[in-house]
Amino acid sequence: MKLSSGRRQHERDDLIPLINVIFLLLIFFMIAGTLSHRPSVEVAFVETTVSPATQPPQDTLIVTADGTAYYEGSPVVPEALESVLAADETLDREAPFPVIVDRAVTMSALKPISDGLKRSGLARFRIVTLNGRS
């Protein structure tokens, strides 16, 4: 009669912790991926193939396809942009200010908004795009 040495059971036991860790990582990344911040206004992102995709920051100026600007969810006319941004004391004026622009916006519609950003004392602004490769 041949007795089993129990080696087969021991090999399977070594894989169980590895499988547990993989499932925990899977659950973590599924939850972390759904907690990302979304803009409060519907906008079609411009796509780029150079810059990596990032989440839009909290304090963001959003320009929709019809040229309407929104700051913190409220519409802002370009003439009032300077006073609205000046009233925001939490805004870092030295950091690049993020602007999400719909791909249908023309440069002529964006010009008054960029002028308002300059008048508000911001050092610079950046246009947030969506990575076309992802």
UniProtKB/TrEMBL annotation:
<dbReference type="InterPro" id="IPR003400">
    <property type="entry name" value="ExbD"/>
</dbReference>
<keyword id="KW-1003">Cell membrane</keyword>
<keyword id="KW-1133">Transmembrane helix</keyword>
<keyword id="KW-0812">Transmembrane</keyword>
<feature type="transmembrane region" description="Helical">
    <location>
        <begin position="15"/>
        <end position="35"/>
    </location>
</feature>
<dbReference type="GO" id="GO:0005886">
    <property type="term" value="C:plasma membrane"/>
</dbReference>
<comment type="similarity">
    <text>Belongs to the ExbD/TolR family.</text>
</comment>
<dbReference type="GO" id="GO:0022857">
    <property type="term" value="F:transmembrane transporter activity"/>
</dbReference>
<protein>
    <submittedName>
        <fullName>Biopolymer transporter ExbD</fullName>
    </submittedName>
</protein>
<dbReference type="GO" id="GO:0015031">
    <property type="term" value="P:protein transport"/>
</dbReference>
<dbReference type="Pfam" id="PF02472">
    <property type="entry name" value="ExbD"/>
</dbReference>
<keyword id="KW-0813">Transport</keyword>
<keyword id="KW-0472">Membrane</keyword>
<keyword id="KW-0653">Protein transport</keyword>
